[in-house]
Amino acid sequence: MAEKLMKYADAVAKYEPVFGLEVHVELSTNTKLFCPAHIEFGGEPNSQLTPVSLGLPGSLPVVNKKAIDYAVKLGLALHCDIAEWSQFARKNYFYPDMPRDYQISQYDKPLNGEGYLDVELDDGSIFRMDIERAHVEDDAGKNTHVGGSDGRIEGADHSLVDYNRAGVPLVEIVTKPIEGAGARTPEVAGAYVRAIRDIVRALGISHARMEQGNMRADVNVSLHKPGEPLGTRSETKNVNTFKGIEKTLTYEIRRQAAILEDGGEILQETRHWDEAKQATAGGRVKSDANDYRYFPDPDLVMVHVTREHIEELAKDLPEMPRERRARLKQEWGFTDLQMRDAVNADALDLIEETIEAGASPSGARKWWMGEISREANERGVSLQELPIGPQDVAEVEGLIQSGKLNDKLAKQTVSGVLAGEGKPAEVVAKHGYQVVSDDGALEAAVDEALKANPDIAAKLKSGNMKPMGAIIGAVMRATKGQADAKAVSKIVMQRIAK
């Protein structure tokens, strides 16, 4: 039975939303957080294991130094207070996908303390997200539920567990309760998680592929009327798309508002986002921190990161995404909208590499945001997954600039590359794509077009240039699209001037 929902505009007019996000970022180390088991996405199930990651008696964890360095870099990028001394704790809970049946996390002594991230919204305004902590922990494995209709545990007749992911290092970035976003709450949350994705990629510490589980978010939200205490929150677990995060908040605000308006109470529980139903669904009653019985892990000493080492890591930080976008926007002469579209399409790196390969900024943007983007959308893949790269696009642009291809032939060349026919030069050679530059051939084609269209020729001679496109089109058809439009226009002007 569908839950009762209030209209979103009415909900945010009557209630103030308070939200929080727990963003889980898997670190791209070669081995796990506490053992030398190799990490590889898509590997044979239960093949990336050691006695430590299996939780076998007598096995002892050893901290992965690179994971700690990666976490410090992230803490620095998020303006966190970096603790010289931090501690791992055991988080006790029944984890069917964690062999040792507890998680090694950080609780009261995290590596990264309070920080913040200024997030730029679509209209250019800035919203500050206050961060409570960004602590290090190891990930759980993966459950696959078999027999149900949607792959979830409801309706399943059995479950399979893959422990390969168990023990993979991750950082959990926990915000403070965020107030003041109002109706823009979903937008702010989506922009924040996108900003986190961009930062960890810039730092080179995570692949941040949400579809592979490298990055996901727990979404918390509650409602209260102005001047009243904060309400009871729900927590929607493991949302792994940006749109899913935004839709989760929109749905939960509408759901909770309807319950409160009817005099009901919000249950503090975990929920999950059902993409098929475009709704959240209830899970278990939410546990509080004391239910996890945190205590310092007796097998691990405290982590000591010296001030000198933190300063060394700080010196190696790259340009942050927000500053980089501002610089590139100015260098390339893009408008706010053009830059925002490139960022949203995850095309910024591709455009930059295409420009570095010799293309103009406008040319690089035209291809990646035009023909190639449409192809990616049709195939349902990312731009990076298509069989075309920055060097290919720059080569096509070079052929246009040299006059060897016109726009139509260039599009056909790009289509050939996308179809797997080879590099641009190979596609051009295979199909014989080449702009007709022979003046005699073009003049003959123009004369034939004017002769076949005497009414248009008369209009052109009288000074009406609007029908020029019809003559150019006729010449293009006659030359199978291989004429240069500018050269055709020049010849037409010469003919009508006689």
TrEMBL record:
Keywords: ATP-binding, Ligase, Nucleotide-binding, Protein biosynthesis, Transferase. Residues 349-496 form the Asn/Gln amidotransferase domain. The keyword Signal does not apply. GO terms for molecular function: asparaginyl-tRNA synthase (glutamine-hydrolyzing) activity; ATP binding; glutaminyl-tRNA synthase (glutamine-hydrolyzing) activity; transferase activity. It comes from the Bacteria. This is Aspartyl/glutamyl-tRNA(Asn/Gln) amidotransferase subunit B. Its EC number is 6.3.5.-. It catalyses: L-aspartyl-tRNA(Asn) + L-glutamine + ATP + H2O = L-asparaginyl-tRNA(Asn) + L-glutamate + ADP + phosphate + 2 H(+); L-glutamyl-tRNA(Gln) + L-glutamine + ATP + H2O = L-glutaminyl-tRNA(Gln) + L-glutamate + ADP + phosphate + H(+). It comes from Bifidobacterium actinocoloniiforme DSM 22766. Belongs to the GatB/GatE family. GatB subfamily. Pfam families: GatB_N (PF02934), GatB_Yqey (PF02637). Signal peptide: none annotated. PROSITE patterns: GATB (PS01234). The keyword Ligase applies. Heterotrimer of A, B and C subunits. The gene is gatB. One of its GO terms (biological process) is translation. It is an enzyme of class 6 (ligase). Allows the formation of correctly charged Asn-tRNA(Asn) or Gln-tRNA(Gln) through the transamidation of misacylated Asp-tRNA(Asn) or Glu-tRNA(Gln) in organisms which lack either or both of asparaginyl-tRNA or glutaminyl-tRNA synthetases. The reaction takes place in the presence of glutamine and ATP through an activated phospho-Asp-tRNA(Asn) or phospho-Glu-tRNA(Gln). Gene3D superfamilies: 1.10.10.410. PANTHER family: GLUTAMYL-TRNA GLN AMIDOTRANSFERASE SUBUNIT B MITOCHONDRIAL AND PROKARYOTIC PET112-RELATED, GLUTAMYL-TRNA(GLN) AMIDOTRANSFERASE SUBUNIT B, MITOCHONDRIAL. NCBIfam families: gatB, PRK05477.1-2, PRK05477.1-3, PRK05477.1-4.
